[in-house]
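User: Here's a chain of 426 residues. Predict its fold as C-alpha cells.
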Amino acid sequence: MSLCTIIGVLDDGAASLSREALQALREAKHVIAGSRLLEVLADDIAGARQYDLTARLTQVPNWIDAALADEEPVAVLASGDPLCHGIAGYLTGKLDPARVRILPNLSSIQLAFAELRLPWQSATIVSVHSKDAGEWTPGATPQHGLYELMRHCRSQDLLAVLTSPDNTPARIARLLQSGGLANQFDIAVAQCLRQNEQRVTGFIGIAEAAEAVYADPNVAILKRKAPAPAPVLFGLNDASFRQRKPEKGLITKREIRAVSLARMQLTRRSIVWDIGAGSGSVGLEAARLCPDGHVYAIEKNAGDIDNIEQNRLSWGIGNYSVVHGKAPQFLDAWPDPDAVFIGGSGGELAELIDLCLQRLRPGGWLVMNFATLENLSTAIDTLKRLGADWDACQIQASRSSPILDMHRLQAENPVWIISAIPHHEQ
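Assistant: Prediction complete.
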C-alpha cells in the first residue's frame, strides 16, 4: 500500500534528511511543497511530478487522494517539524491515517534556542505566519493576525515566534512598543538557519529591533527581563480606575461589580459584551477573568472612552476592545456573547434586552444594573413580555467613613441587579 509521507526539511535541503526520509523522498512519484522547498530539493525530486502548494493548501488533500488511488507514493515537504504549526496538523484531519507517515525534523525553534544556548522547555510557541493584518493597534480584536501574540506577551516570560515576510521581527518589536511592553522584553532573531547566510543576533532591545531589517526566513525569541507580574483578577479598588467624577464617581462600585461579575458566569474563554461601559470597570475586570476570551465594549460618552483607554493601558489588558457609539450600533458586527452586561442603555433598553437575549450563546447570561425605578420597571416588563427567565436583587452597600476619632457607615446608592436567560435554559 502506497503512503503519503510528510517530511520535515531544513534549509540545507537533502543534508538535513535522515536516510529514511531521503529514501521516501526519492521513491515518491508525487512531491508537494511550497516553492522554496521545491527549489531547495530540486535535484532530488527531478523525476517526480511536482505540485506547488503556495496559496492552494485546500487542494492538497485532493492531490494526495488521487495519487494514492493509483497506488503511487506521495511526499509532502514542510519546514522543520510538520506537526509544529505545520501542514501535517491540517492533513491528518483530511486523509486516511493508515496511509499517512510523518518524519519530523528539527524545528526552527529548536535550532534557534540551540544557537542561543538557552533552555526552551518553558517557552510558549506562537505562530504569526498568517495573512497580513497590518501593524498592531491597541484594542484590536481576535481577528487581527497578531492578537494571540499580544495576548501571550502580557502573561508569558519566554516566547518563540514563527514569523512571516509580513509579520517580521521589526513589526513584532513595534507591537511591544504600542502595547507598552517594550521595556519588559529583549528580542533575539535567528535568520536563515542552516544556510550559508545564517545569522543569529544576541538579545537586543526592542527599540533597536523595531528599526532593523532581517533576512527571511527567521524566528524571533522574546525573553522578559523580569518575571511577569501576577495581577489582581477580581475586586479592584474603585479608586484604581480613572473615571468621570461629579458628586460621586460614575463607576460601577466594587460591591455591585463583584456580584454582577459573579452572575455573568464567566469562563476563561467567555466572549463578553459591555454595553454602556462608563469607566470600563466591569468589562476590564471581566477581561482579566477571561484571559482566553475577549470583551467588546461600547460607550457613547467621548470623555469616558478616553478614561477606558487609560484604564486598559494602566492595567495591561489586551483582550478588550471599545468603540465610541450608542448601542445597538456596532453590535451586529460582534460575535455572539457568552455574557452581556448592561450598565447604561441610552434609552434603548427594551430593544437591547430583546437583541441580547437573541444573540446569547447557549447557557449565556444577561446581567443589568439599574439605579432608577423607571429602568427597573422597563427591564422587568420587557423580560416578562419576552418570556425570559429572570431574577432581581437589590444591593445597598455602606462603607466605613471617619467621623472625628471614630467611624460611621456611609450609605452608597442602592442598585438593582437583574439577571436573565432565554426561557428554559436555566
